[in-house]
Predict the 3D structure of the following.
Amino acid sequence: MTRELTITGESINEAALLAQRKMSSGMGAAIYFLGVVRESEGAGKISAIEYETFQKMAEHQFNLLFDEMEKRWPIESVRLVHRIGVVKVGELSLWAEITAPHRGEAFASCQWLIDEMKRVVPIWKNPLVKL
Amino acid sequence: MQISVHFYSYFKELTGCAETREELSDGATIADLFRQLSQKFPKLNAMKKSTLVAVGVEYQTWDYVLKNGDEVSLFPPVQGG
């Protein structure tokens, strides 16, 4: 399984990521998930979320998750980009893509990855309230 | 032994700092470290149940026995995505 992980303060360029997709002839499914900053967090309106990370640990924890995915499903590739710093409402905070032979393992593994990321990868949100 | 401690997210506001150094006796655990930190930073104490702890880049439990030079990180539940 190939893996690409990027934790960045730069905007996520979805078009460029899609253009870089590589799939072998045995793969029948590619799915990707977008995380987008909503205009509300809890009860209040916000203008942005500031993401903070403990980057070295985040990279390690993501790689542990990728190791586990490789054991559980016949995935060919995983690519994940998580933005840190200030991300405005409507902008992408997360982009994750998985390619696999069939849709079942692609959907299941992507759902698992996002759920586990929210449980173990040290990234935190600080909503910036709209003035 | 000397232990360095890093705080993340709102734990930095609770303690007023991003990192500190603590002197502990040999055989001390993360629970002992947290007790010591709670005396220095009283607002931390209420967070104990939800606190996550790492040594280096690995999660650890309260009974982990610390070693001289360990880098401990304390932080609230994570929320990526």
Observations:
- The interface with chain A takes residues 6, 8-10, 52, 54, 56-59, 73, 75-76, 78-81 of chain B (CB under 8 Å).
